[in-house]
């Protein structure tokens, strides 16, 4: 019995086409019902538990209100920002902090021009297709832009039903934007390096996830993309300065110490929500210094692996998966809704596996990664086991080992399989 179980896990035979269609559909229906119940039980702008509908989106809306009042710098003043949240959602509203760089204030202001629920719907409605289209492009587009056969992902239910999608919608968060920028940036890196660089540079709106991007691009010699990414960062920063004045940067910088102390080090967000090595260490009783030390070791190891894989001739899908999963591991602050970023990683790996064949245990690992956002928070809260962080570490190690393990074979062929190439011995990379 045990041997048959391990064989099924190794070969992935348990993950049949029928299960890929049916199980995600069940999760999707459950997610829709949960969202419907939340809305049905809400009172005005607040859910039944008294928190704003879309919880974290309330901080975006409040920051936008301050911008429209000509008080952009006050978005980083916790008292002023909380006053606006309480004015909109009621005096019992807890504080949802605004921690984004000034370039994101323009988006907040545009959304604040609408009533709150309309703004929330517009934000999720505009960014969800970006995530979905990036996945579609990854699984069905070759480097030259031609369509190619790809996995149907259970008629796309597996993509839409990915539990991180539901968590992101419930929190009104920006995971779809982050995942879409990552997904399209990597998808277009070979064919449209300048556009890809601009998209990857736009990740500066959430800078903790952009730590590894410059390392990967430099290691891969993607110089046009590097230049475009730098231009995007400088351009967005200059635009924010022109719109809101230089004082907004000073206010942002001044707020970072309080954000680091309260939100990260003291765990005001809740350790069970944060899926990082730092949070896992703090939840298990480690002091701040030890937690930072462990996070630094993991971040350095992840960065080194990213450089090695991106310098190698490994298939591009391995490089993409390493960068995407590594970006979540390299920061001390990443929540379960940020796991939407794993959607493009799963798509890259699934596309490669269906083209070249899956490695032992790969199908089962992809299924585990897919379901993890649904149970990571609950598992951490109930047992103290940092399931989300552990699964991220396993995925990263698997992708890095697979990418680096294929170097010898690739060197013998003298070829690097470009993204979407037919078969393991694809055409030589143009880089």
UniProtKB/TrEMBL annotation:
Compartments, as annotated in UniProt: Cell membrane
Indicate the transmembrane segments per the record: 20-40, 103-123, 156-189, 195-218, 225-245, 290-310, 365-384, 390-408
Which terms are listed as keywords in the entry? Cell membrane, Membrane, Transferase, Transmembrane, Transmembrane helix
| InterPro entries the record matches | GT87 (IPR018584)
Q: Which domain of life is it from?
A: Bacteria
Q: Which Pfam families match?
A: GT87
Q: How does it sit in the membrane?
A: Multi-pass membrane protein
Q: According to the UniProt entry, where is the signal peptide? A: none
The UniProt similarity line reads: Belongs to the glycosyltransferase 87 family.
Protein's recorded name: DUF2029 domain-containing protein
Q: Which organism is it from?
A: Labrys wisconsinensis
Where is the organism placed in the taxonomic lineage, from the top? Bacteria, Pseudomonadati, Pseudomonadota, Alphaproteobacteria, Hyphomicrobiales
């Amino acid at each position: 019995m045990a041997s048959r179980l391990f064989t099924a896990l190794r070969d992935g035979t348990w993950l049949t086409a029928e299960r890929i269609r049916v199980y995600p559909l069940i999760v999707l229906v459950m997610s829709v019902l949960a969202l419907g119940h939340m809305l049905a039980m809400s009172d005005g702008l607040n859910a039944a538990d008294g928190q704003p509908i879309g919880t974290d989106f309330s901080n975006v809306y409040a920051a936008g209100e301050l911008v429209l009042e000509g008080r952009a710098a006050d978005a980083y003043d916790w008292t002023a920002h909380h006053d606006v949240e309480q004015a909109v959602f009621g005096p019992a509203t807890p504080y949802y902090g605004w921690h984004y760089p000034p370039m994101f204030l323009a988006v907040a202001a545009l959304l604040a021009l609408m009533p709150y629920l309309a703004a929330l719907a517009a934000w999720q409605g505009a960014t969800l297709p970006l995530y979905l289209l990036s996945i579609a492009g990854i699984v069905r587009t070759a480097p030259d832009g031609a369509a190619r056969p790809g996995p149907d992902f259970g008629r796309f239910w597996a993509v839409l039903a990915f539990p991180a999608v539901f968590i992101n919608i419930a929190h009104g968060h920006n995971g779809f934007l982050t995942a879409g920028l990552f997904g399209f940036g990597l998808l277009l890196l070979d064919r449209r390096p300048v556009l890809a660089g601009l998209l990857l540079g736009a990740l500066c709106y959430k800078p903790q996830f952009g730590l590894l991007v410059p390392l990967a691009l430099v290691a891969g010699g993607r110089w046009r993309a590097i230049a475009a990414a730098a231009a995007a960062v400088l351009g967005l920063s200059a635009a924010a300065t022109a719109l809101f004045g230089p004082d907004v940067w000073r206010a942002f910088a001044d707020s970072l110490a309080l954000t680091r102390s309260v939100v990260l080090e003291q765990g005001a967000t809740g350790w069970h929500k944060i899926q990082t090595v730092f949070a896992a260490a703090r939840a298990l009783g480690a002091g701040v210094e030890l937690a930072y030390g462990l996070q630094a070791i993991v971040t350095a190891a992840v960065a080194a692996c990213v450089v090695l894989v991106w310098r190698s001739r490994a298939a591009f899908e391995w490089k993409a998966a390493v960068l995407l999963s590594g970006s979540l591991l390299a920061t001390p602050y990443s929540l379960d809704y940020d796991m939407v970023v794993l959607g493009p990683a799963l798509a890259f790996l699934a596309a490669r596996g269906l083209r070249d064949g899956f490695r032992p245990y790969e199908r089962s690992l992809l299924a585990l990664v897919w379901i993890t956002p649904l149970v990571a928070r609950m598992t951490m809260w109930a047992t103290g086991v940092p399931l989300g962080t552990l699964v991220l570490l396993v995925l990263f190690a698997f992708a890095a080992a697979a990418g680096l393990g294929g170097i010898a074979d690739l060197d013998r062929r003298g070829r690097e399989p470009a993204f979407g190439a037919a078969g393991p011995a694809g055409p030589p990379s143009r880089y």
